[in-house]
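Preliminary data (for renewal application), flavin-adenine dinucleotide complex.
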Amino acid sequence: MLYTNLKHIETAAQLEKAISDNENVMVVCGRMGPMCIPVYGIAEDIEDEYKHVQFFDMEFDNPEAVVIRRLPEVRGFMGIPFTIYYKNGKVVKATSSIQTKEQVTTILNKEFGAPANKKTL
Amino acid sequence: MNEVQQYDAIVVGGGPAGLTAGIYLSRARVKTLILNEGTLGGQMILTHEIANYPGVESINGFQLANIMKKQAKSFGCDLLANINIASMSLGDDIKTITLSDGKSFSAPAVILSPGGRPRTLGVPGEGKFKGRGISYCATCDGDFFTDKEIVVVGGGNSALEEAVSLTKYASKVTIVHQFDHFQAFEHAIEEAKKHPKISFIMESTISAFHGENGLESVDILNLKTNAVTPFKTDGVFIFIGYVANTENLKGMVALNDWGEIVVNSDLETNLPGVFAAGDCIAKRYRQVTTAVGEGTVAALAASNYLHRRKQSHS
Ligand SMILES: Cc1cc2nc3c(=O)[nH]c(=O)nc-3n(C[C@H](O)[C@H](O)[C@H](O)COP(=O)(O)OP(=O)(O)OC[C@H]3O[C@@H](n4cnc5c(N)ncnc54)[C@H](O)[C@@H]3O)c2cc1C
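Predicted structure:
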Protein backbone atom coordinates (compact mmCIF):
# COMPACT_ATOMS: atom_id res chain seq x y z
CA MET A 1 0.00 0.00 0.00
CA LEU A 2 1.21 3.49 -0.78
CA TYR A 3 1.75 6.07 1.94
CA THR A 4 -0.57 8.73 0.58
CA ASN A 5 -3.77 10.29 1.83
CA LEU A 6 -5.61 9.18 -1.29
CA LYS A 7 -8.06 6.31 -1.35
CA HIS A 8 -6.12 3.17 -2.19
CA ILE A 9 -7.00 0.55 -4.75
CA GLU A 10 -5.49 -2.80 -3.88
CA THR A 11 -7.20 -5.26 -6.20
CA ALA A 12 -8.36 -5.38 -9.79
CA ALA A 13 -11.90 -5.94 -8.46
CA GLN A 14 -11.69 -2.71 -6.42
CA LEU A 15 -10.58 -0.82 -9.52
CA GLU A 16 -13.47 -2.29 -11.48
CA LYS A 17 -15.90 -1.22 -8.77
CA ALA A 18 -14.39 2.26 -8.49
CA ILE A 19 -14.79 2.94 -12.20
CA SER A 20 -18.25 1.45 -12.43
CA ASP A 21 -19.56 3.24 -9.32
CA ASN A 22 -18.17 6.66 -10.26
CA GLU A 23 -18.55 8.71 -13.41
CA ASN A 24 -15.15 10.44 -13.19
CA VAL A 25 -12.12 8.66 -11.77
CA MET A 26 -8.39 9.44 -11.68
CA VAL A 27 -6.01 6.64 -10.63
CA VAL A 28 -2.33 7.34 -10.01
CA CYS A 29 -0.42 4.07 -10.30
CA GLY A 30 3.12 4.45 -9.00
CA ARG A 31 5.64 3.93 -6.22
CA MET A 32 6.79 6.13 -3.33
CA GLY A 33 9.38 7.72 -5.60
CA PRO A 34 10.45 11.09 -6.95
CA MET A 35 8.28 11.21 -10.03
CA CYS A 36 5.18 9.78 -8.33
CA ILE A 37 5.03 11.63 -5.00
CA PRO A 38 4.40 15.03 -6.65
CA VAL A 39 1.44 13.59 -8.60
CA TYR A 40 -0.11 12.07 -5.44
CA GLY A 41 0.41 15.46 -3.78
CA ILE A 42 -1.42 17.25 -6.57
CA ALA A 43 -4.33 14.78 -6.40
CA GLU A 44 -4.52 15.23 -2.61
CA ASP A 45 -4.50 19.00 -3.01
CA ILE A 46 -7.27 19.21 -5.57
CA GLU A 47 -9.50 16.46 -4.15
CA ASP A 48 -11.65 18.96 -2.22
CA GLU A 49 -12.03 21.25 -5.20
CA TYR A 50 -12.84 18.56 -7.78
CA LYS A 51 -15.74 16.98 -5.90
CA HIS A 52 -17.10 15.47 -9.11
CA VAL A 53 -13.94 13.34 -9.51
CA GLN A 54 -12.86 10.38 -7.37
CA PHE A 55 -9.10 10.19 -6.82
CA PHE A 56 -7.31 6.92 -6.10
CA ASP A 57 -3.81 5.50 -6.03
CA MET A 58 -2.61 1.99 -6.77
CA GLU A 59 0.83 0.51 -6.12
CA PHE A 60 2.64 -0.09 -9.40
CA ASP A 61 4.36 -3.25 -8.18
CA ASN A 62 1.17 -4.83 -6.85
CA PRO A 63 0.51 -7.83 -9.14
CA GLU A 64 -3.12 -6.69 -9.33
CA ALA A 65 -1.97 -3.48 -11.00
CA VAL A 66 -1.47 -5.54 -14.13
CA VAL A 67 -4.95 -4.31 -15.13
CA ILE A 68 -3.42 -0.86 -15.46
CA ARG A 69 -0.03 -1.92 -16.80
CA ARG A 70 -1.73 -3.85 -19.62
CA LEU A 71 -4.05 -1.09 -20.81
CA PRO A 72 -3.51 -0.36 -24.50
CA GLU A 73 -3.39 3.35 -23.61
CA VAL A 74 -0.15 2.84 -21.62
CA ARG A 75 1.67 0.94 -24.34
CA GLY A 76 4.99 2.70 -24.77
CA PHE A 77 4.92 4.25 -21.27
CA MET A 78 8.35 3.97 -19.65
CA GLY A 79 8.03 6.30 -16.71
CA ILE A 80 6.00 6.08 -13.54
CA PRO A 81 3.46 7.03 -12.36
CA PHE A 82 0.94 5.86 -14.92
CA THR A 83 -2.02 8.16 -14.36
CA ILE A 84 -5.30 6.99 -15.83
CA TYR A 85 -8.46 9.04 -16.20
CA TYR A 86 -11.71 7.03 -16.52
CA LYS A 87 -15.10 8.42 -17.56
CA ASN A 88 -18.10 6.08 -17.24
CA GLY A 89 -15.71 3.16 -16.89
CA LYS A 90 -13.72 3.96 -20.04
CA VAL A 91 -10.16 5.30 -20.24
CA VAL A 92 -10.30 8.82 -21.65
CA LYS A 93 -6.70 9.86 -21.00
CA ALA A 94 -3.48 8.38 -19.63
CA THR A 95 -0.20 10.11 -18.79
CA SER A 96 3.28 8.84 -17.98
CA SER A 97 5.81 10.24 -15.50
CA ILE A 98 5.67 13.39 -13.37
CA GLN A 99 3.06 16.02 -14.22
CA THR A 100 2.47 19.56 -13.01
CA LYS A 101 -0.71 20.68 -11.30
CA GLU A 102 -1.53 22.67 -14.40
CA GLN A 103 -1.17 19.60 -16.65
CA VAL A 104 -3.41 17.56 -14.33
CA THR A 105 -6.13 20.21 -13.98
CA THR A 106 -6.11 20.85 -17.73
CA ILE A 107 -6.94 17.17 -18.30
CA LEU A 108 -9.55 17.13 -15.51
CA ASN A 109 -11.24 20.26 -16.84
CA LYS A 110 -11.26 18.94 -20.40
CA GLU A 111 -12.39 15.38 -19.67
CA PHE A 112 -14.59 15.86 -16.61
CA GLY A 113 -15.38 19.59 -16.55
CA ALA A 114 -14.05 22.32 -14.26
CA PRO A 115 -15.34 22.33 -10.68
CA ALA A 116 -18.57 24.30 -10.29
CA ASN A 117 -17.14 26.55 -7.58
CA LYS A 118 -13.88 27.20 -9.46
CA LYS A 119 -12.74 30.75 -8.92
CA THR A 120 -12.03 32.81 -11.98
CA LEU A 121 -9.79 35.85 -11.87
CA MET B 1 -11.16 42.01 -5.37
CA ASN B 2 -9.80 39.42 -2.96
CA GLU B 3 -8.63 40.40 0.50
CA VAL B 4 -4.85 40.50 0.93
CA GLN B 5 -3.72 38.23 3.78
CA GLN B 6 -0.96 39.80 5.81
CA TYR B 7 2.12 38.09 7.12
CA ASP B 8 5.43 39.23 8.61
CA ALA B 9 7.39 37.03 6.22
CA ILE B 10 6.63 35.03 3.11
CA VAL B 11 8.91 32.23 1.96
CA VAL B 12 8.72 31.38 -1.73
CA GLY B 13 9.68 27.71 -2.16
CA GLY B 14 9.29 24.89 0.36
CA GLY B 15 12.38 22.75 -0.12
CA PRO B 16 14.88 22.27 2.72
CA ALA B 17 15.94 25.94 2.53
CA GLY B 18 12.38 27.29 2.66
CA LEU B 19 11.16 24.83 5.30
CA THR B 20 14.15 25.64 7.53
CA ALA B 21 13.47 29.36 7.12
CA GLY B 22 9.84 28.64 8.04
CA ILE B 23 10.90 26.72 11.16
CA TYR B 24 13.23 29.48 12.36
CA LEU B 25 10.87 32.36 11.58
CA SER B 26 7.77 30.76 13.12
CA ARG B 27 9.70 29.69 16.16
CA ALA B 28 10.71 33.34 16.60
CA ARG B 29 6.96 34.19 16.43
CA VAL B 30 7.29 35.81 13.04
CA LYS B 31 3.96 35.21 11.27
CA THR B 32 5.16 33.21 8.26
CA LEU B 33 3.69 31.71 5.13
CA ILE B 34 5.48 29.25 2.84
CA LEU B 35 4.27 29.19 -0.75
CA ASN B 36 5.38 26.19 -2.75
CA GLU B 37 4.76 25.54 -6.40
CA GLY B 38 5.09 21.74 -6.26
CA THR B 39 5.00 19.19 -3.47
CA LEU B 40 6.54 20.47 -0.22
CA GLY B 41 10.06 19.16 0.30
CA GLY B 42 11.53 20.18 -3.04
CA GLN B 43 14.33 18.11 -4.50
CA MET B 44 14.68 16.30 -1.18
CA ILE B 45 11.69 14.17 -2.12
CA LEU B 46 13.56 13.13 -5.27
CA THR B 47 16.23 11.59 -3.10
CA HIS B 48 15.82 7.97 -2.09
CA GLU B 49 18.55 8.01 0.49
CA ILE B 50 20.15 10.99 2.18
CA ALA B 51 23.21 9.63 3.95
CA ASN B 52 25.10 12.87 4.48
CA TYR B 53 22.69 14.75 6.74
CA PRO B 54 24.59 15.02 10.03
CA GLY B 55 22.88 13.46 13.01
CA VAL B 56 20.78 11.13 10.87
CA GLU B 57 22.67 8.09 9.60
CA SER B 58 20.44 7.61 6.62
CA ILE B 59 16.95 8.77 5.75
CA ASN B 60 14.62 8.73 2.79
CA GLY B 61 14.24 12.25 1.36
CA PHE B 62 10.45 12.02 1.53
CA GLN B 63 10.62 11.25 5.27
CA LEU B 64 13.06 14.08 5.97
CA ALA B 65 10.78 16.47 4.07
CA ASN B 66 7.79 15.32 6.11
CA ILE B 67 9.64 15.90 9.38
CA MET B 68 10.68 19.42 8.34
CA LYS B 69 7.12 20.16 7.23
CA LYS B 70 5.75 18.92 10.57
CA GLN B 71 8.28 21.02 12.49
CA ALA B 72 7.39 24.17 10.56
CA LYS B 73 3.67 23.55 11.11
CA SER B 74 4.14 22.84 14.81
CA PHE B 75 5.61 26.32 15.27
CA GLY B 76 2.61 27.89 13.53
CA CYS B 77 3.98 28.36 10.02
CA ASP B 78 1.30 28.38 7.31
CA LEU B 79 2.11 26.20 4.30
CA LEU B 80 0.49 26.27 0.87
CA ALA B 81 1.61 23.65 -1.66
CA ASN B 82 0.91 23.20 -5.36
CA ILE B 83 0.22 26.88 -5.84
CA ASN B 84 1.02 29.00 -8.85
CA ILE B 85 2.42 32.50 -8.35
CA ALA B 86 0.87 34.90 -10.87
CA SER B 87 2.71 38.04 -9.81
CA MET B 88 5.17 39.35 -7.27
CA SER B 89 5.89 42.91 -6.28
CA LEU B 90 9.08 42.95 -4.24
CA GLY B 91 10.39 46.51 -4.63
CA ASP B 92 8.22 48.28 -2.05
CA ASP B 93 8.44 48.25 1.73
CA ILE B 94 5.48 45.87 1.80
CA LYS B 95 5.86 43.11 -0.74
CA THR B 96 2.83 41.48 -2.35
CA ILE B 97 2.48 38.06 -3.93
CA THR B 98 -0.63 37.07 -5.90
CA LEU B 99 -1.49 33.50 -6.87
CA SER B 100 -3.15 32.42 -10.09
CA ASP B 101 -6.35 31.62 -8.13
CA GLY B 102 -6.54 35.28 -7.13
CA LYS B 103 -5.37 34.94 -3.50
CA SER B 104 -2.97 37.69 -2.43
CA PHE B 105 -0.46 37.80 0.42
CA SER B 106 1.68 40.63 1.69
CA ALA B 107 4.64 40.91 4.06
CA PRO B 108 7.54 43.28 4.75
CA ALA B 109 10.05 40.43 4.36
CA VAL B 110 10.34 37.77 1.67
CA ILE B 111 12.75 34.85 1.46
CA LEU B 112 13.20 33.43 -2.02
CA SER B 113 14.06 29.73 -2.04
CA PRO B 114 12.63 28.28 -5.25
CA GLY B 115 15.54 25.85 -5.68
CA GLY B 116 16.30 24.21 -8.98
CA ARG B 117 15.13 21.55 -11.39
CA PRO B 118 16.86 19.10 -13.71
CA ARG B 119 18.25 20.77 -16.80
CA THR B 120 16.68 19.52 -20.02
CA LEU B 121 18.48 19.27 -23.36
CA GLY B 122 15.81 21.39 -25.02
CA VAL B 123 16.05 19.62 -28.37
CA PRO B 124 13.27 18.36 -30.68
CA GLY B 125 11.35 15.36 -29.35
CA GLU B 126 12.36 15.77 -25.70
CA GLY B 127 8.86 16.77 -24.54
CA LYS B 128 7.16 14.11 -26.66
CA PHE B 129 9.21 11.20 -25.32
CA LYS B 130 9.33 12.17 -21.63
CA GLY B 131 7.98 9.07 -19.88
CA ARG B 132 8.07 7.20 -23.19
CA GLY B 133 11.79 6.55 -23.37
CA ILE B 134 13.30 9.69 -21.86
CA SER B 135 13.77 9.75 -18.11
CA TYR B 136 15.43 11.98 -15.55
CA CYS B 137 15.30 9.42 -12.71
CA ALA B 138 17.19 6.12 -12.80
CA THR B 139 15.72 4.79 -9.56
CA CYS B 140 12.17 5.46 -10.81
CA ASP B 141 12.31 4.16 -14.32
CA GLY B 142 15.41 1.94 -14.54
CA ASP B 143 13.44 -1.32 -14.50
CA PHE B 144 11.52 -0.36 -17.66
CA PHE B 145 14.81 -0.73 -19.50
CA THR B 146 15.66 -4.28 -18.44
CA ASP B 147 17.77 -5.96 -21.15
CA LYS B 148 17.56 -2.82 -23.30
CA GLU B 149 20.24 -0.58 -24.74
CA ILE B 150 20.20 2.89 -23.30
CA VAL B 151 22.05 6.19 -23.42
CA VAL B 152 23.01 8.35 -20.43
CA VAL B 153 23.68 12.01 -21.18
CA GLY B 154 26.06 13.90 -18.88
CA GLY B 155 29.50 13.76 -17.37
CA GLY B 156 29.12 14.76 -13.74
CA ASN B 157 28.82 12.60 -10.63
CA SER B 158 25.13 11.86 -11.03
CA ALA B 159 25.49 10.90 -14.72
CA LEU B 160 28.33 8.47 -14.03
CA GLU B 161 26.86 7.04 -10.83
CA GLU B 162 23.42 6.58 -12.38
CA ALA B 163 24.98 5.03 -15.51
CA VAL B 164 26.63 2.39 -13.31
CA SER B 165 23.39 1.81 -11.38
CA LEU B 166 21.46 1.42 -14.65
CA THR B 167 23.72 -1.50 -15.66
CA LYS B 168 21.61 -3.54 -13.18
CA TYR B 169 18.86 -3.39 -15.79
CA ALA B 170 20.21 -2.37 -19.19
CA SER B 171 22.21 -4.67 -21.44
CA LYS B 172 24.33 -1.77 -22.68
CA VAL B 173 24.82 1.82 -21.51
CA THR B 174 26.38 4.47 -23.73
CA ILE B 175 27.44 7.67 -22.00
CA VAL B 176 27.25 10.73 -24.24
CA HIS B 177 29.19 13.69 -22.89
CA GLN B 178 29.91 17.10 -24.34
CA PHE B 179 33.54 17.40 -23.24
CA ASP B 180 36.61 15.18 -23.65
CA HIS B 181 36.83 14.73 -19.86
CA PHE B 182 34.36 14.18 -17.00
CA GLN B 183 33.48 16.58 -14.19
CA ALA B 184 33.03 13.88 -11.56
CA PHE B 185 34.91 12.45 -8.62
CA GLU B 186 37.77 10.13 -9.63
CA HIS B 187 36.11 7.06 -8.06
CA ALA B 188 32.92 7.61 -10.09
CA ILE B 189 34.94 7.97 -13.33
CA GLU B 190 36.99 4.84 -12.57
CA GLU B 191 33.92 2.76 -11.79
CA ALA B 192 32.15 3.79 -15.01
CA LYS B 193 35.28 3.32 -17.15
CA LYS B 194 35.97 -0.19 -15.95
CA HIS B 195 32.36 -1.38 -16.31
CA PRO B 196 32.04 -3.88 -19.19
CA LYS B 197 28.50 -2.74 -20.10
CA ILE B 198 29.43 0.96 -20.39
CA SER B 199 30.88 2.68 -23.45
CA PHE B 200 31.48 6.35 -24.18
CA ILE B 201 30.82 8.88 -26.91
CA MET B 202 32.77 12.00 -25.97
CA GLU B 203 32.59 15.60 -27.22
CA SER B 204 29.06 14.93 -28.40
CA THR B 205 25.47 15.64 -27.51
CA ILE B 206 21.98 14.55 -28.54
CA SER B 207 20.42 16.94 -31.04
CA ALA B 208 17.06 15.19 -31.64
CA PHE B 209 14.87 12.31 -30.44
CA HIS B 210 12.92 10.14 -32.88
CA GLY B 211 10.24 7.46 -32.70
CA GLU B 212 6.60 6.68 -33.27
CA ASN B 213 4.84 5.79 -30.02
CA GLY B 214 8.04 5.47 -28.00
CA LEU B 215 11.66 6.53 -28.40
CA GLU B 216 13.50 4.56 -31.10
CA SER B 217 16.61 6.55 -31.96
CA VAL B 218 18.50 9.76 -31.32
CA ASP B 219 20.71 12.00 -33.39
CA ILE B 220 24.19 12.29 -31.92
CA LEU B 221 25.90 15.53 -32.79
CA ASN B 222 29.70 15.52 -32.69
CA LEU B 223 30.52 18.91 -31.23
CA LYS B 224 33.99 18.96 -32.79
CA THR B 225 33.09 18.00 -36.35
CA ASN B 226 29.36 18.92 -36.36
CA ALA B 227 28.63 15.52 -37.88
CA VAL B 228 25.24 14.05 -36.95
CA THR B 229 24.96 10.27 -36.57
CA PRO B 230 21.67 8.42 -36.01
CA PHE B 231 21.93 6.10 -33.00
CA LYS B 232 19.38 3.39 -32.19
CA THR B 233 18.38 3.31 -28.52
CA ASP B 234 15.51 2.18 -26.31
CA GLY B 235 15.92 4.88 -23.72
CA VAL B 236 17.80 7.99 -22.71
CA PHE B 237 18.50 9.16 -19.16
CA ILE B 238 19.43 12.82 -18.91
CA PHE B 239 21.64 14.00 -16.02
CA ILE B 240 23.10 17.31 -17.12
CA GLY B 241 22.79 19.32 -13.97
CA TYR B 242 20.25 21.70 -12.56
CA VAL B 243 18.94 25.16 -13.35
CA ALA B 244 17.70 27.70 -10.81
CA ASN B 245 13.93 28.25 -10.77
CA THR B 246 14.27 31.99 -11.11
CA GLU B 247 12.58 32.73 -14.46
CA ASN B 248 9.77 34.68 -12.78
CA LEU B 249 12.32 36.77 -10.85
CA LYS B 250 14.08 38.17 -13.92
CA GLY B 251 14.12 41.95 -13.82
CA MET B 252 12.96 41.89 -10.20
CA VAL B 253 16.06 40.87 -8.22
CA ALA B 254 19.68 40.80 -9.32
CA LEU B 255 20.57 37.50 -11.01
CA ASN B 256 23.91 36.38 -12.43
CA ASP B 257 24.49 35.05 -15.97
CA TRP B 258 23.25 31.59 -14.91
CA GLY B 259 20.01 32.97 -13.50
CA GLU B 260 21.15 32.47 -9.90
CA ILE B 261 20.15 35.05 -7.30
CA VAL B 262 23.05 37.26 -6.19
CA VAL B 263 23.27 37.58 -2.39
CA ASN B 264 25.68 38.88 0.23
CA SER B 265 26.90 36.88 3.23
CA ASP B 266 23.67 37.67 5.13
CA LEU B 267 21.78 36.31 2.12
CA GLU B 268 20.30 39.72 1.33
CA THR B 269 19.45 40.34 -2.30
CA ASN B 270 19.74 43.77 -3.90
CA LEU B 271 16.22 44.57 -2.63
CA PRO B 272 15.74 45.61 1.02
CA GLY B 273 13.69 43.01 2.89
CA VAL B 274 14.21 40.35 0.21
CA PHE B 275 16.51 37.44 1.07
CA ALA B 276 17.38 34.27 -0.80
CA ALA B 277 18.56 30.80 0.23
CA GLY B 278 19.28 27.36 -1.17
CA ASP B 279 20.00 26.08 -4.66
CA CYS B 280 18.63 29.26 -6.29
CA ILE B 281 21.53 31.44 -5.11
CA ALA B 282 24.92 31.93 -6.72
CA LYS B 283 27.12 29.38 -4.95
CA ARG B 284 29.27 26.35 -5.53
CA TYR B 285 27.89 23.49 -3.44
CA ARG B 286 24.26 22.42 -3.64
CA GLN B 287 23.28 20.06 -0.85
CA VAL B 288 20.48 19.64 1.69
CA THR B 289 22.87 20.75 4.44
CA THR B 290 23.91 23.91 2.59
CA ALA B 291 20.24 24.70 1.83
CA VAL B 292 19.31 24.17 5.48
CA GLY B 293 22.21 26.39 6.61
CA GLU B 294 21.20 29.15 4.26
CA GLY B 295 17.54 28.83 5.27
CA THR B 296 18.72 29.48 8.83
CA VAL B 297 20.86 32.49 7.92
CA ALA B 298 18.14 34.01 5.72
CA ALA B 299 15.53 33.56 8.46
CA LEU B 300 17.75 35.13 11.13
CA ALA B 301 18.66 38.00 8.81
CA ALA B 302 14.98 38.51 7.92
CA SER B 303 14.00 38.50 11.62
CA ASN B 304 16.69 41.08 12.27
CA TYR B 305 15.45 43.17 9.32
CA LEU B 306 11.86 43.02 10.66
CA HIS B 307 13.07 44.04 14.11
CA ARG B 308 15.03 47.03 12.75
CA ARG B 309 12.13 48.03 10.51
CA LYS B 310 9.72 47.92 13.47
CA GLN B 311 12.04 50.13 15.52
CA SER B 312 12.41 52.67 12.74
CA HIS B 313 8.63 52.75 12.27
CA SER B 314 7.88 53.30 15.99
C1 LIG C 1 18.16 13.08 -7.32
C2 LIG C 1 18.78 14.02 -6.29
C3 LIG C 1 19.54 13.48 -5.28
C4 LIG C 1 20.12 14.32 -4.32
N1 LIG C 1 20.82 13.75 -3.28
C5 LIG C 1 21.27 14.53 -2.29
C6 LIG C 1 21.90 13.95 -1.15
O1 LIG C 1 22.02 12.73 -1.02
N2 LIG C 1 22.35 14.78 -0.18
C7 LIG C 1 22.21 16.13 -0.25
O2 LIG C 1 22.61 16.83 0.68
N3 LIG C 1 21.64 16.71 -1.33
C8 LIG C 1 21.16 15.95 -2.34
N4 LIG C 1 20.56 16.52 -3.42
C9 LIG C 1 20.55 17.99 -3.52
C10 LIG C 1 19.48 18.62 -2.61
O3 LIG C 1 18.26 17.92 -2.76
C11 LIG C 1 19.30 20.09 -2.97
O4 LIG C 1 20.53 20.74 -2.86
C12 LIG C 1 18.31 20.77 -2.01
O5 LIG C 1 17.05 20.12 -2.04
C13 LIG C 1 18.11 22.23 -2.37
O6 LIG C 1 17.17 22.77 -1.52
P1 LIG C 1 16.35 24.10 -1.84
O7 LIG C 1 15.39 24.28 -0.72
O8 LIG C 1 17.27 25.18 -2.16
O9 LIG C 1 15.56 23.83 -3.19
P2 LIG C 1 14.60 22.69 -3.70
O10 LIG C 1 14.83 21.43 -2.95
O11 LIG C 1 14.76 22.69 -5.17
O12 LIG C 1 13.15 23.22 -3.33
C14 LIG C 1 12.57 24.33 -3.93
C15 LIG C 1 11.06 24.26 -3.89
O13 LIG C 1 10.54 25.50 -4.40
C16 LIG C 1 9.47 25.24 -5.28
N5 LIG C 1 9.37 26.34 -6.26
C17 LIG C 1 10.05 26.51 -7.41
N6 LIG C 1 9.68 27.66 -8.02
C18 LIG C 1 8.73 28.22 -7.24
C19 LIG C 1 7.93 29.39 -7.33
N7 LIG C 1 8.03 30.24 -8.33
N8 LIG C 1 7.05 29.62 -6.36
C20 LIG C 1 6.92 28.78 -5.32
N9 LIG C 1 7.64 27.66 -5.18
C21 LIG C 1 8.54 27.38 -6.11
C22 LIG C 1 9.81 23.91 -5.92
O14 LIG C 1 8.63 23.27 -6.39
C23 LIG C 1 10.46 23.17 -4.76
O15 LIG C 1 9.48 22.47 -4.02
C24 LIG C 1 19.96 15.72 -4.39
C25 LIG C 1 19.19 16.26 -5.42
C26 LIG C 1 18.60 15.43 -6.35
C27 LIG C 1 17.76 16.02 -7.45
